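Researcher: Going back to the complex we discussed earlier. I've cleaned up the inputs and rechecked each line, so this should be the final set. Can you rerun the prediction on the complete assembly and write out the structure?
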Amino acid sequence: MAATSRREQVVADAPRGTEMKELPLGDVYRLIEPGPVVLLTTRSRQGRANVMTMSWHTMAKIAPPTIACIVSSDDLSFFALRQTKECVIAVPPVGLADKVVKVGNRSGRDTDKFATAWLTPLRGERASAPLVAECFANLECRVVDTRLVNKYNLFVLEVLKAWIDSAQPKPKTIHHVGNGAFVVDGEVIHFESHIP
Amino acid sequence: MAATSRREQVVADAPRGTEMKELPLGDVYRLIEPGPVVLLTTRSRQGRANVMTMSWHTMAKIAPPTIACIVSSDDLSFFALRQTKECVIAVPPVGLADKVVKVGNRSGRDTDKFATAWLTPLRGERASAPLVAECFANLECRVVDTRLVNKYNLFVLEVLKAWIDSAQPKPKTIHHVGNGAFVVDGEVIHFESHIP
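Model: Rerun complete. Updated structure for the full complex:
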């Protein structure tokens, strides 16, 4: 059940300072390929939104943008994702790191993490799961392959619509190295390359 | 056809300044989860070693350490990997970035990339594919699931043996953001977390 709101409603719902704009689908890999910690949101059939922290994901195709990710069956999100086949992947800037950790430390079973972590859910266009207003990118996804779910909790997602917050230019991301330690993006270096 | 050399031979083969030591398999996720650019090596049944640059990979299980990765069927490595079901994932430090790009820009079809990129192949213990001496970590892997190969070029790998170069303490890694631009690891920040 996808939300039917138009883009204008999304922008209208956005908190002050947020300027969500459509990101061309061909640019999605630039966000995911570097391996940042992301948030994954779902909305259960009963209408309950949830959010989890995720570090196990990879691009699988550039076009259409396709992502493989692991969502543990220990996580409440697993069941909403398997049932609704919809989610949003949101990319948080380093300034959101403390909230990202709070989200990771709690379960949606006993906590409304959008309220507790002070994250703002926004209605998307293509997925029922909410966007996260504080994240600089949001990818609305649907599950397109479940063959590796039973054995590896691996879902294949197609990105249907992508949003970028132009109010957050060049945000730094974080990469989890284990036990609550994160590497923050440092300098950018450039080489001649034939590779997209 | 796994190489049968003992660990001592690996160390004996290592270039001066390299001190490859076994890394506990439970620590492998700390290397892969942050999303660094890696090298993937293979050895064809005809005995030819090849190396490619890879950014599309994710942890899939902590124990046994299991990695999902995408190897394009445009790459020569795809065929050796599918045929032999063995590979090595090597993690390069930022100082190797120019060689990583050289490897990414050329095809094993017309170039011996170990020679051209001045990378040193080392014999491993569990996989026929070579370790890369200049990389600070090397993971010997076998393919354990090919169900998503035809549709997504997605291989599931189990790490059988892991090596870490203790002569390279706390190396910084690189993350590809597209078109030859890489983000280098910056500062490390710490939070209280229940998550491994």
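Model: Worth noting: Helices of chain B lie at 7-13, 28-32, 76-84, 97-105, 113-116, 149-152.
Researcher: Good, that matches what I expected from the previous run.
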